[in-house]
Amino acid sequence: MSEFQDQLVLASITRNIGFLVAIVVTVGMVVYLLLQSRVAKDEVGSEVELAANRKKYVDDEELEGPVLTRNLFLGLGLITVVAVALPLYWLQEPSQLEGWEGKFDEISRSRGEEQFLPSAEGGLGCADCHGGMEATGGSAPYVLTDANGDFVETVDWKAPALDMLMYRFDEEEVREILVYGRPFSPMPAWGVEGNGPLDEQQIGDLIAYIDSIQLRGDELDEQLVAVADEVDRSIDAGEFASEGEALFNLGLNNGFAGGAFSCGRCHTPGWSYGQPGVEGGGALGPNLTNVEAQFPGGATGFASQLDFITIGSENGISYGVQGMGSGGMPAFGQMYTEDQLEAVVDYERNLP
User: Fold this and answer.
1) Which of 138, 155, 125 is nearest to 269 (CA)?
2) Which of 5, 118, 216, 250 stands 20 to 30 A from 163 (CA)?
3) Which long-range contacts (CB under 8 A, 24 or more apart) does 328-335 make?
């Protein structure tokens, strides 16, 4: 039996103890009231209901003897039950709460899963774009418009895999993305604050489900090996000239992980729908064609930029030259090796 199941069993036991205490106290009160109602006898007389001051009661000797003793013992018994049982119940309360905390997490994940379902199954349709319930990466239709808002064309926009999302962003950053969406992309705002349909609890449920599908253990190791294999394949196929270029554009030609590992998805205009413009020319993310100005100083600047893409930006924390983090730049330190990260930095610092 798992630790969570043990906690639920313990919580059930303590709840039953509480019910037992309540039953014993209730039965004791009922018995007491019945005994008291049977002490005095009805007097035959003219009253429809005998007045209380005319009922015959026990004499002083009996009242201060057996009656008093019986009532004292009854009260003592009930006090003993309460005095012993309630502390025992209270001592188990932390375990009971801990058990239900796990249960609430399970319920939240279940609700988030229902929201993540394809739209055809009654969900929000997250699975439609992001590659099924495991969110391994997919695509979404998107209408491109010109500066006047007029239709240009409909494209297939790469939707990133979410099974490593929590390695790139912390929970608050993920919440920000879900609440406000990604402007100029198919990703809508889902939170009420972003004019979406979901309240804070529902957003939390979605995050709980996304966290539950993160790759861990052997699956994570296998994905990181697959990244290296895809880099080698794309170079051997002549798609890219260097490791840094291949990593920067990982998934451009075959949709690997929906572009979740790539830099170009955010930093190259048109990259997400297969019509890349100036490499690193800026889109959702800033222009990188002169990134050395942001991280100047030769080896020092290289190390500073390497640290930045390793840990990502943090809201309100400065970086480089007058850069202010928003939390939008993901962390790649748990997705790429140090050598791969260095290759990316070297490539970016040599963009034309």
Assistant:
1) 155
2) 5
3) 328/173, 328/284, 328/285, 329/285, 330/168, 330/169, 331/167, 331/168, 331/169, 332/168, 332/261, 334/164, 334/167, 334/168, 335/164, 335/167, 335/168, 335/224, 335/227, 335/261
- Asked if residue 288 lies in contact with residue 282, where contact means CB atoms within 8 angstroms, the answer is yes
The DSSP 8-state label assigned to residue 67 in this structure reads: I
CA separation (Å) from 128 to 120, 163, 194? Answer: 9, 15, 21
CA 344, 348, 351 angle in degrees (round to 5)? 140
Contact 157, 273 (CB under 8 A): yes
Dist. CA 186–CA 144, nearest whole Å: 10
Contact 292, 173 (CB under 8 A): no
Q: Are 198 and 190 in contact (CB under 8 A)?
A: yes
Long-range contacts of 336-342 (CB under 8 A, 24+ apart): 336/227, 336/247, 336/261, 337/224, 340/228, 340/231, 340/243, 340/247, 341/306, 341/309, 341/310, 342/306
The HSE-up count of residue 15 (CA atoms within 13 Å, CB side) is: 10
Contact 272, 184 (CB under 8 A): no
Q: Give the type of residue at 220.
A: L
- DSSP code, position 64: I
The domain spans of the chain are 3-102, 131-212, 217-348
Cα dihedral sign for 36, 42, 48, 54? negative
Q: Which two tokens stand for residue 158?
A: 């790469």
How many residues does this entry show for the chain? Answer: 352
Q: What is the pLDDT of residues 85-143, one digit of tens each?
A: 888 777 777 776 666 666 888 999 999 999 999 999 999 999 999 999 999 999 999 99
DSSP 65: I
Which of 77, 82, 74, 76 is closest to 18 using CA atoms?
A: 82
pLDDT of residue 203: 97
Spatial separation of the C-alpha atoms in residues 311 and 2, rounded to whole Å: 35
